[in-house]
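Next comes a concrete protein, fold included:
___
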Amino acid sequence: MNDRVSSRRELLKETVLATGLAAVLPSVGSGAGPSALHVACNQYPWGTFYARQKKDFNKLLDAGLAEVKASGNDGFEPGVGGLQQIEQMTPLLKKHGLEMWSLYVNSTLHEAGQAEKSIEDVVAAAGKAQAFGTRIIVTNPSPLRWGGAENKTDEHLQVQAAALDKLGARLKQMGLVLAYHNHDMELRCAAREFHHMMAGTDPAHVTLCLDAHWIYRGSGNSQVALFDVVKLYGPRITELHLRQSQNGVWTEAFGPGDIDYPRLAAGLLQIGVKPLLVLEQAVEAGSPNTMNAVGAFQKSTAYARQVFADFAA
């Protein structure tokens, strides 16, 4: 079994490299700062920190991005729904010296009638972002209902995988990389949605944004499941979302906790994969409340640089 897994891993790695995906990915060793390690953060966690202070990050975007820079991040991954948001965001990112190597865009791909329009919307957003230096487009295909318990049918999954592959092929033609992202709901029912998005798509078109904690939580707080995903799809990981918890509850800052991130870093290096590092250390009900966003992200960024220091080599 280990030999078969190893052979599959090498085949996937060779496939990804052969298609030229590595050539368009940013080098994580080209960031600013003494460690020369590029560390970015996603927009979502900043919204959660601001929300618990009764503030709206999106309405305070200029001041908010100044705080992102003050926290020590080199880049910012916006979560956008259209061209107008990108046009609003990019001048402010430039003003505060933040790079946008990746962009998070939602999509609706499980219904054939909606999938074509969604693909065109993502491609348009990607083209706008590419002019600002974006190389990776992250998408999480929407569920039947956000927060709902309904599961997609086999037909939904087949339509979605075909659409995801088509989107990835379109983006590849533009010189961009598509990275599939999931939350916990895609891990229901033996993780059939998650696995079909990987097994049902071409590695040359669809890579993986590994959100380690959503895999962990969606599998019943299982590191076994997380590291199995790395064994199966490690060479396809082009971006890594970083979040930690203690006893299953998200911590304020990225640090030691439920997930063994030093093991994950070592495992990725072992297979020659250095994904883009994007902090997504959000807070939720039950999270400690001892730091503001800047303080929390300063600690998070410092720990990420420590754990993934060898990525800069």
Notes: Residues 154-173 form the longest helix (20 residues). Residues 1-6, 15-20, 30-35 have pLDDT under 50 and may be disordered.
